[in-house]
Amino acid sequence: MNDKNVIVTVEKIVKHLNIWRQRQLTLEGKIVIFKTLAISKIVHVAYLSNVPKAIVEKLEKIQSEFLWNGKKAKINNKTLCSKFQNIDLQKVDIQSKIDALQLSWIKRLNDEHVHQWKKKSLK
What we know:
This protein is mainly alpha-helical. It contains 5 helices and no strands.
């Protein structure tokens, strides 16, 4: 079931990006579109379940094709993921984003507040 949710989400991402491909966006504009439309769609799925490595690789390929119009990248991937001073040109490292979402549960688990979902079953 989780794989189906992820696949449907990836299909929606491709559909939205194909619409935006028709516009002559700058690299910065494409990065903003990918962050807001594509990553926001995968966040919920990634937050609650495991995302297969094949899906992460597919998302990275989709991102690269969207940013570079299907051509060879003009800027190194690590360089584009790095934070620059006074510039918002920072591509999403999809695997790191998914890892961070999944690890965010640790903070809530160690929170000292009482939550219903933390209670153990006493059966």
